[in-house]
Design goal:
The chain is of the alpha/beta class. The protein has two domains: about 210 residues, 3-Layer(aba) Sandwich (Rossmann fold); about 130 residues, OB fold (Dihydrolipoamide Acetyltransferase, E2P), CATH 2.40.50.1070. Helices cover about 30% and strands about 25% of the residues. The chain is built from ten helices and 16 strands. It has a seven-stranded mixed beta sheet. The protein has a seven-stranded mixed beta sheet with strand order 12-11-10-13-14-16-15, with helices on both faces. A hairpin with a 5-residue loop joins strand 4 and strand 5. The longest helix is centred in the middle third of the chain and has 16 residues. The chain starts with a helix and ends in a 5-residue tail after the last strand. The model has no long low-confidence stretch (mean pLDDT about 95).
Length: about 375
């Protein structure tokens, strides 16, 4: 992938850009094998790859510059703004949106926030695109001071960009590099963006997590569904479930499924999907996944976990070891913490592992691992 910003030394987010892509994938596979070297793996599935550019469905842009000439991207270490609107990781559909947003910022009087001076209102623009063609735009503001002006200017923006189906303002008053605050103010009647992977309806709300590489994510969910379908299970937990992607893919009309996620926004999305699918034995709750699990006196036959980078941790590993579900399906964006967790689950063997290259040109990747209780079959 050619990137002028990388060559100019202005952006080095893609640390592996100079490495041939085939070498990137083989190096990631070698790293995963190294992490699991002490744990016998019954089956290594081949790595899953996708597009090398234009694959991101989300842009997180720092807004700098002036109200007349805003810059979307990031701020370099020397304090200079770096324009990332032409980043080759973004699909071609993003450029026309950024082009219209520049004059809109002046129309709405949204002065970019100046970190050094602690002045201005507009901190970030967060743009998300669905594979269905719709988009969600979030304005991250320092306060509600310019909210009335933003609302007044919005009809012009919607006329120019009808693909913006969900628009909101997030209020982040803290003078720190924090992407968003707790308060989200809807600016459109529609508050969730429709997505669909493998004929499973999914919804994205402003404050709910969603995978940034939809092509590879769809394969990841489909793989989990295929692996679970081959297991003799009729009950499962989906812990750290987000908007329910894994659980909804694995659920059948007969499957008893409980999905747990701390984000109420994500749970609202998951419930909406379950209702659309007519799944009557599926329930979702906005709770802490570890606290939910460790307070239960029994476990289902399968526990699926998709934790943040820190992993599931010692407390949940100890609980699962004691309660002994027949299978654990572990999806991880951090193979280091996953390997630590699996080492704690001494009574389980690794039946199957597969790498999903969700983040080309970086050292990061996603992994799906099926663990089977010793003495069980997979």
């Amino acid at each position: 992938m050619h990137c002028a910003l990388y060559e100019a030394g202005r952006c080095r987010s893609c640390q592996w850009l100079e490495k041939p892509y085939s070498h990137q994938v083989s190096d990631k596979q070698a790293r995963l094998q190294q992490l699991l070297a002490a744990m016998p793996v019954a089956e290594w599935c081949p790595p899953v790859t996708g597009a090398q550019q234009g694959f991101r469905n989300k842009a997180k842009m720092v807004v700098s510059g002036s109200v007349e000439r805003p810059v979307f991207g990031m701020v370099a270490r020397d304090g200079e703004p770096v324009d990332l609107a032409d980043c080759p990781l973004y699909p071609a559909s993003f450029a026309p949106v950024f082009a219209v947003l520049r004059p809109f910022i002046a129309r709405a009087g949204l002065t970019p926030y100046n970190v050094a001076r602690r002045r201005g209102e507009l901190k970030f623009l967060l743009l998300t695109e669905s594979t269905q063609g719709g988009m969600m735009l979030r304005f991250v503001l320092r306060s509600t001071t310019k909210l009335a002006q933003l609302r007044a200017a919005l009809p012009w923006l919607q006329q120019q960009l009808p693909q913006l189906q969900v628009i909101s303002a997030n209020i982040q008053p803290v003078h720190m590099a924090i992407l968003e605050g707790e308060e989200e103010i809807a600016l459109t009647s529609r508050q969730a963006l429709e997505e669909n992977f493998n004929q499973v309806p999914l919804w994205i709300r402003p404050q709910s997590f969603f995978q940034t590489n939809p092509q590879v994510a769809a394969v990841l969910y489909a793989t989990a569904r295929r692996w679970v379908a081959a297991l003799p299970v009729s009950s499962m937990w989906d812990l750290f479930c987000g908007v329910g992607g894994f659980g909804l893919h694995c659920a059948t009309p007969e499957m008893q499924l409980t999905g747990i996620e701390i984000s109420a926004e994500a749970i609202a999305c998951a419930r909406q999907s379950a209702q659309q699918l007519g799944l009557e034995k599926v329930s979702f709750a906005a709770l802490d996944s570890t606290r939910f699990a460790t307070s239960r006196d029994a476990v289902p036959q399968l526990v699926l976990v998709n934790p943040p980078r820190r992993g599931i941790g010692a407390a949940l590993c100890d609980y699962l070891s004691r309660m002994a579900p027949a299978y654990i399906l572990y999806s991880s964006c951090n193979p280091d913490s996953m390997a630590q967790d699996i080492a704690r689950l001494a009574d389980y063997r690794i039946s199957r592992v597969q790498l999903f290259d969700m983040f080309p040109h970086t050292a990061h990747f996603e992994v799906l691992t099926l663990l089977t209780r010793q003495g069980g079959t997979a």
